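Hi Y.,

Following your request, here is the sequence exactly as I used it, all 378 residues.
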Amino acid sequence: MTQTKKRAYSSVLIATLFALAAVLALVPSAVTAHADVAYGNTYGNVAAVQARLATLGYYKSSIDGKWGSGTTAAVKKFQTDNGLKADGVVGSGTASKLKVKLPISGGISYGKTAFNVGAVQARLKTYGYYTGTVDGVWGNGTLRAVLKYQSDRGMTVDGVVGSGTAGKLGVTLSTAAKTGGISKGKTAANIRAVQTALKSAGYYTSTVDGAWGNRTLCAVLHFQSDTGLAVDGVVGAGTEKKLGIDLSSGGNTGTGTTGNISDSDLNLLARCVYGESRGEPYNGQVAVAAVVLNRVRSSKFPNTIYGVIYQRGAFTAVSDGQINLTPNESAYNAARDALNGWDPTGGCLYYYNPATATSSWIWSLTVHIKIGKHNFAL
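Below is the corresponding structure, written out as tokens. Let me know if you'd prefer a different format.
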């Protein structure tokens, strides 16, 4: 073969090889098994598979909801041992053998309320499945803990806390919103005492402010779970005793109270709170009641609740007639908490909504705190 023919042959061969490579690049990758979950590699789906494989001894790494080579190897080994095609893909057959109900959505059949989620987290934390903070917020950490708990207990792994899982956990979930509380009353003094005791025990890490909220509720739930009490979020006699505190039943137990209060004054204060601040955060409702009481104690204003509220031009609710609406329980509780010494404003005498305020004078005041839509000022 001449040198010229050799060069021509080499050129043809190279061109042919390039063409073949291009054709192979177009061949679907399905010829190579792609290991994953047939329903999608979502966090919940992968974590559920990992949880079951971990329970059965096939998976030794952390349950992180991420598909990797370790998960693939564990799936293939499980499939081989159970007479399934060892392709590393979790389809309906493999999922059925694993007792995993895919796809995983996760949640609580009674609703993801702060109480329900907090109670579930508390029990899972007591049992060592949940490592996060008991905060009443559903997230991947809670879902992972539920999946592993269901797997270890031989239940169908679906990530949903229904009556079966709740029964195993020993919690009674609620179909209605529950906020917990104190059987002797959610007074500021009682709440502060509970928060202080929980803080000393390491269950409450927020500010001791005398305000009942989700953080206090979740701390109570966690404490109850760890100490073998009914996980209901209510500080009754048993929880009170375990905490080592003696709460006060009714009456004005806080500092800075107005003394004895008549039913008519309490009702009027609650009507003012409802007319002025319904729809605001609870501490914002207490703040409105506190402003009224701060005025009662100030020499600049009338010295009675009635006088302060009905002072000419003082409150919009009086001007537009909303003072005559029937207050709800939240408004009454806010009024009582303010009467028992809780003042979220720190002594403010005024408040206004900056989005609707029309008085030029009000803008000259120094704003000390903003709660909800209201600015509170002196």
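The chain has 15 helices and seven strands.

Thanks again,
Q.
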